[in-house]
Amino acid sequence: MPANSVLLEMDAHAAPALQQAIEKLVRGDGEVVLDFSSIDRIDPSELKSMDKLAGLAADKSAKTVLRGVNGRIYKALKLANLTGRFSFEN
Amino acid sequence: MSSPGVQETIWGERPNIVAAFFGGSERLVKPMAENIASLSEDRIAYLDGLVSHARNAAAVFSQYTQEDVDRIVKRMAMAGMENAQHLGRMAYEETHLGVPEDKAIKNMVATEFVYNYVRDKRTAGVIREFPEHGVVEVAEPIGVIFSLTPITNPTSTVLFKCLMAIKTRNALIFGPHPMAARCCQEAMRIMYETALKHGAPEGVFTCVESPTLADNAYLMHHKDVAMIDATGGRGVVKAAYSSGKPALGVGAGNTPVYLEKSADLDMAVVDIITSKTFDNGTICASEQTVVIDDEVYDRVLRKFAELGAHVCNEQEAALMGRMLVDPEKGMAQPMATGQKAVDIARFIGLAVQPNTKLLVAPIQGVGRDHPLSVEKLFPVLAVYRAKSMDEALQVCVDVNHFGGLGHTAVVFSRNDEVIRKFGELINSGRILVNSPGSIGAIGGVYNDMVPTFSFGCGTGGGNSTMDNVNVFHYLNVKRVARRAQAPMWYRVPNQIYFNRNAVEHLRQFPSHSTIIVTNPALEQFGHAEIVRRHLPVETLVHVLAIPDAEPEAKVILEGLETLKVYKADQIVALGGGSVIDAAKIMKLMYEFPQADLEELGAPFLDIRKRIVRYPTEKAIQVRLVAIPTTSGTGSEVTPFAVLFDKEHGRKVTLADYSLAPDVAIVDPQFVMSMPKGLTADTGIDCLTHALEAGVSVYASPYTDANALQALQMVFKYLPIAYERPRDEEARTMMHNAACIAALAFSNASVGVNHALAHAFGARFRVAHGRANALLLPHVIRYNASVPSKFMPSPHVRAFTVQKKYAMMADLLGLGGETTEEKVNNLIAAIEELLDRLSVPRSIAELGISKEEFERAVPDLVKIAFEDPSWRPTNPRMPLMNELADLLRAAYKGRDVPKVAHVPEPEVVKDGAYASKFSVA
């Protein structure tokens, strides 16, 4: 993980971590790594936040990495046309 | 209805909403692009937003489990039931169509009945398993569905589609009929809020506000809309299908009813009235024309009248036709849709009783000249008096083809034959027997059909389905199919007697009349007499000597005649492969006179799945005892017979286990005097059988036991039998080896060596074993090399053929360290054996010129490719050019290039035989 990366681990509720990630990107804090390991599924508002996050990352030219995304969430992101806007790590 | 002024006066302030619907539908189709172009940027952004929401909801929804959706669907169904009356009333007040009470009932059916049907259906994750076939079906949601709903059944259709969408994890965007938008939005709101409350994703249902044709056109073409579900008129359906999207489009009908004289008339009349007046006839499955048998016509009309229908006279019927059907469009006037019978009567100036519930109008034909034969979504029913059943059925077919194809039809009868005929003649997705059309077609009430509010009308109605649409139309069903381990077999004759004097066993087979089929030389040599001596004394024996060559049809027919003349109950085939093959075919024709040899010789890919079936109903039973007089073909136990097609100069291979002899007697006394050349040729044939069966795709532990045993016996005893023909042990062992190798290839088959040898041997009249010898070293090298194409067969689990040849080399003690060394040693050993047997080692040595050979190659390749010997058993799939290369290599003869190294497969320990072989 690069030195300027920020690792955000999500618990059962992804929304606070996503909000935190958005704030970090707004501040220009560099790469964000979101750890989905403990997340089983995402809801529409989280999906919306991720869309926003992807947009911000693109604006700031900052990389956003999703770590430990399970198959179901990956497919949901794929169906929402979001997978191409993130990097994935397992 | 030609004067708008009259309409307003008669119908009060009711807007011309149905006309808007029908007209709108047609407009939707024509200027689709034009419609889209008329949308403002704001409107497009609004519609894009709806789709985006729905897409995200569908994406999130894809994560849900069966338990998740079932929990939500149950609550939605309960909410639908609780609001059924409220929504029915609202639908009526907005549309002014139908009957509020009936609409409430429809809403209940759309929730309770539909829920009852779907509650236990699996629609998420694994939905069905077929362990016996290794197939699992898995549901894949569709995504975003754009759903158009009709004015006639607005809220019930919305409730129904909401339940289906949640059950299948799809998101819906509703495009309601503009004149039923409020009630549809309310129905959707109730469903949506309930769904959300119980865990459905936000945005799973949306509804276009103030929908326009342009909105519909735009959404139908939106890239993120996965499917269109259009329930409505023909225009809407056509627009959906024209969009290029996958679509469920189900629409209009024209229901014929045959009221046959044997029917329960009271039930029929009540059912028809119930159905045709339900929601004032707005359900498109409702009865339109009732065709009544002459014998009961008057009684039926009386019963209609007694139960509240007004039966029109000729003038009244003509008046209705003029007033209620648009003569230009040939369609019912939309203003009448869903109206009460008394209001319609008042409108057209017809005097009826105030409690009249149905207007019954006699018609004399079907089509544009008979206006009332069209679909009428209001309580007007056409009736036709039929003089006979044939006429009745013809009129029903006419109605069916006059706008009703694929939809619904009804027959009232107690006569099963009438019902069967009606079912065969009428093209309808729902053919209802002794039950009402509208409520019957919905399913789940009067029958066990799938409950629905969308009737698929098949191709006749321009639809993609003829089903009652339900959850399975809202799903992609994925099939996870496991590799099948195809069942194999090992079939051999149940009686094989072997070793010297085995012929004595003939005595145990009782027979009144036995035909000994042999060739003239064997008869002269006294072999036939030996056989005769060993038959029971009471047996009448006739010897039939046939030419010693692959049998032609003429020989078979002559033999068949002999069998018939002597009323044979036993055939003893005494000879080489040709004689035994001839006897097999004679037996086939004798037992199955209907057998068509040309058809039975048709090519096939897999014997278990071939097109032609061999007959099984025997006209007569005959026992076939095969006594081979050569040690090679193994025909005494095989299910094959080769017929020579003289006309086309080719061999036709017949293959079926019914051809296999009943008894094989492998007695070496009949081969002791076999000439050296024949010993060599037939011995090589036996060797080829063992080698090809050993590496066959169909090889199994059963066949390998035979193939490997035979291989060892051939290597040990063939040179001795060839060099010392009177050596009884060698002759015995070679005779047994031939039979044992045949047991292997009877079940595992052979390969390209045989296919090429058949083609080449027939063309140049070269003995079969000799032709095999010319090809054998080249074919082994070819099979042992990495294929340009693998044989597509579930039996092939790894490229093990090189290992298998190497194992054969090990068994023969040929030495070698690596696999390829062992294979090369096997080839060398075979070449050495062939040299010892003094057989020609190249086609050139046979005196065939290069030019003549090359001229023949294209034909030989074609014939070999068609030969059933290699399909699908050769360990690699031969290409045409590869077959030509093999023939050319055989022309040249020696100098077989060395087999190159092939990486060895890992040992598979899960029971896969082909891979396990290497650890044997």
Q: What is the average per-residue confidence, as pLDDT of chain B, rounded to a whole number?
A: 91
CATH superfamily of chain A: STAS domain
* Rounded radius of gyration of chain A (Å): 12 Å
Which term fits the overall shape of chain B? elongated
Which key features would you list for this structure?
heterodimer; A: 90 residues; alpha/beta; 4-stranded parallel beta sheet; B: 920 residues; Aldehyde Dehydrogenase, Chain A, domain 2; Rossmann fold; 7-stranded parallel beta sheet; 6-stranded parallel beta sheet; 33 helices; disordered C terminus
Overall description:
The complex is a heterodimer of chains A (90) and B (920). Chain A is α/β, with parallel strands linked by helices and 90 residues long. Chain A has a single domain, classed as 2-Layer Sandwich (Transcription Regulator spoIIAA), CATH 3.30.750.24. Chain A has helices spanning 15-27, 44-60, 71-79; strands at 6-9, 32-35, 64-67, 87-89. Chain A has a 4-stranded parallel sheet with strand order 1-2-3-4, with helices on one face. In chain A, helix 2 links the parallel strand 2 (32-35) and strand 3. The radius of gyration of chain A is 12 Å and the shape is globular. The two termini of chain A are 13 Å apart. The model of chain A has no long low-confidence stretch (mean pLDDT 85). Chain B folds into 4 domains: 64-251 and 456-482, Aldehyde Dehydrogenase, Chain A, domain 1 (3-Layer(aba) Sandwich); 255-440, Aldehyde Dehydrogenase, Chain A, domain 2 (3-Layer(aba) Sandwich); 491-670, Rossmann fold (3-Layer(aba) Sandwich), CATH 3.40.50.1970; 674-920, Dehydroquinate synthase-like, alpha domain (Up-down Bundle). Chain B contains 33 helices and 25 strands. Residues 1-30 and 908-920 of chain B have low confidence and may be disordered. Chain A binds chain B through residues 41-45, 47-48, 51, 72-73, 75-81, and chain B through 55-60, 62-64, 143, 201-203.
